[in-house]
Amino acid sequence: MTEARPRLRRTVGDSLEDFERDLISNLYYQRGTTIESASGPDGYHTLAVTVRDRLVDRYARTAAAHYAANPRFVYYLSAEYLLGRQLRQNLLYTDTERWVRPIAEDLGVSLEALEVYDVEPGLGNGGLGRLAACLLDSMATLDIPAVGYGIRYEFGIFKQTFRDGQQVERPDDWTFYGNPWEFPAPDDRQLVGFYGTTKADPKDPTGLKKHWVPGETVRGEPSHMLVPGYGTQTVNIIRLWQARASRESFDLARFGVGQYVEAVDDIVKAENISKVLYPDDSTELGRELRLKQQYFLVACSLRDIIRRYRLRNSGWEGFADKVVIQLNDTHPVVAVTELMRLLVDEHGVGWDEAWSITRRTFNYTCHTLLPEALETWPVRLLERLLPRHMEIIYAINHFFLEEVRAAYPGDEDVVRRMSVIQEGDERRVRMAHLAVVGSTAVNGVAELHTKLLAETTLHDFATLWPERFHNVTNGVTPRRFLRMANPRLSTLITESLGDEGWLTDLERLHGLGTAADDPAFRAAWRDVKRQNKVELAAAVERSTGVLIDPDALADVMIKRFHEYKRQQLKLLHVITMVNRIRADPQATYVPRTVLFGGKAAPGYHAMKLLIQLVNAVADVVNTDPVIARHLRVVFPPDYNVTKAQFVIPAADLSEQISLAGKEASGTGNMKLALNGALTIGTLDGANIEIRDRVGADNFFLFGMDAPAAAALRRSGYSPRSFYEADFELRLAVDTIASGAFAKGDRSVFAPVVDAMLGRDEYMALADYRAYVDCQDTVAEAWTDTERWTRMSVLNTARCGFFSSDRTVREYCAQIWKVDPVRVSP
Ligand code: Z16
């Protein structure tokens, strides 16, 4: 569809009358109902397709402009996307909300009432998936020709519920009521092979060309969703693949002898490939099905990319000039071998030329420093599942190690360290090494992350090929995370700056710097924050039953539960506040609401127990009349993009307290600061760059930096010595150990205590004192309302850098070397 030359004929009008007529028409002829009998879902679906049609019109013109220009395209390969709800975004991007409100009112429904049916596609875990969505938004906004490729998981990230405070996972059947935002494109289906054998090509003297006979084939069926740019005509797409049984999957022999049910088994097996998203955030899990998912994504997408290339081009010399592929983490890295296989085995390109094309086509973004998050796959598994790819990996590695040996004659240690194959009892393929070897550019996602990558994880590669290493600090889209999430603050900003230009030029927020000194502006700023908190309070009461005070300091920690992010440190602070109030109930305390949000991977027992402890502490705090006067703890279940859009605008304090050197970047930190929350944080990830920009006076810094943390670990870290040396810390840990949060049962949370006093892998106890003291400084600062507001305004004013528009501009200039293509109205 993308490539056909559409007739440039308008199909939708651009007046309110047209919109209203289309709504009625869609209700009748698409939904098959009437105004009188329409249900809520009928209303939602009708509105959705009516808005969608406005984007289809732009998409058709975008496809035509791209066809005519035959530009260089960015192809973003990602196993995860967290797009968020689509309805509000598309109303904003088509500027139709102003029509929908009066029409809906006439019909006696509200937009808010319809929006409850707008299901967020939860096709990702956390930061990496949401970053992919922000980058796509910014690429479209900057008129960059781009396609995102991903998997259409039938079940996205699980829904989190709490039973007796424990996380219980429920399946996310997100398409149950249908998805009005996607277009199936069965004509563009692809066949993907697995297993089987390889045969030599008798006519190939080099032995590098082979023929793969797969043992199993699966069909990939694409559908696409529209990705509109803001303030421009460009509408790009994200293409998602779903696995379907291929004709070969039907076991015809079995059908013949009446084994109908057995024959259908293979269909089920094939369709399982895209059934469910792996719910693991930054922990490797070497499961065969996951590797199948990765190859499925890669195989379908590369064939589609080649199909698109061939619509306007021929020959392979120009391929890497028209195609740039960005690999989002190691998940799609098998693409390096698949492109080699397609070129060498299927298209008869010689190995060297194929390698040159491949290397020039790919770039790789790394999102972690945790060794356990860097994927490795057992050689045995690859040999079985993708036999030809394993051979290609050996060949790539062979030529690569020749290069290493030439650079470091006699140094077999460096060869062992750099090899794509990790030797040992179970030989494994290091996907990050394969990615670096097969790419032109490799990037980290924040300055510290890139620096540490080059010094540690990828040190040998950064030494051999320094020119390949880049930093591109992450960003967030100001459309979703400021304009849509925080309309009140957006209006105030626009009034102050004079126009809405900041939405696509976020550095213009600097213009708020002077307004920070205007008491009337500060009062208006506070008023917005308070109204946002009133709204959040209502939502929190609905979901947790707990009342919160909109005048209390809203202290939020929203992110996946992971030991390195240190929710346990936050909890020690909460318990310390409880103990202080208990010890002196008459003293004055700054009223606080601590809000937690986030999921733990279903198999991550330590973090699931910590979730249970957070809920148990919340229970004790909120039901003790003395404590609840000063402190509330709430944990609304199922934190996701939709909930983020409610919480972030209401936050006063942003908790970014990971152990320095562990959080690659963070992006919630950017969203919160942009919405005027002050950060309490360590010198980790992008926190450093946030602090550099907002100013040290407007940021609450505490704790060890990365070198200090590394030094403490080397010197033999003992959490017990910190426990013994600090009375309040000891009391906090002992309070957990006493069973105070388990009705006196000391055993329930004993593993939490043991983890703290035993290994304390992420050295929370070492940073406890600095953290609690820093929180006292925060409380003190909060009492000076005018000063706090000024700091809040300056955070927003100085965070323009963290727009994903800037991130995309940097990718374009440093890595992609692509130019925009304008689409005429
Ligand atoms: C993920 O969300 C991230 C890293 C990773 O290896 C796997 C997943 Cl699913 C996150 C990082 O933890 C975070 O620091 C970063 O901001 C985000 O990716 C986007 O780069």
Automatic annotation (TrEMBL):
GO-annotated molecular function: 1,4-alpha-oligoglucan phosphorylase activity
CDD domains per record: GT35_Glycogen_Phosphorylase
Cofactor requirement: pyridoxal 5'-phosphate
Keyword Glycosyltransferase: yes
One Pfam family matching this protein: Phosphorylase
Keyword line: Carbohydrate metabolism, Glycosyltransferase, Pyridoxal phosphate, Transferase
Enzyme Commission designation: 2.4.1.1
Catalyzed reaction equations: [(1->4)-alpha-D-glucosyl](n) + phosphate = [(1->4)-alpha-D-glucosyl](n-1) + alpha-D-glucose 1-phosphate
Coiled coil: none
Domain of life, per lineage: Bacteria
Top-level enzyme category: transferase
Family note: Belongs to the glycogen phosphorylase family.
Function summary: Allosteric enzyme that catalyzes the rate-limiting step in glycogen catabolism, the phosphorolytic cleavage of glycogen to produce glucose-1-phosphate, and plays a central role in maintaining cellular and organismal glucose homeostasis.
UniProt-listed NCBIfam families: P_ylase
Protein name: Alpha-1,4 glucan phosphorylase
Originating organism: Dactylosporangium cerinum
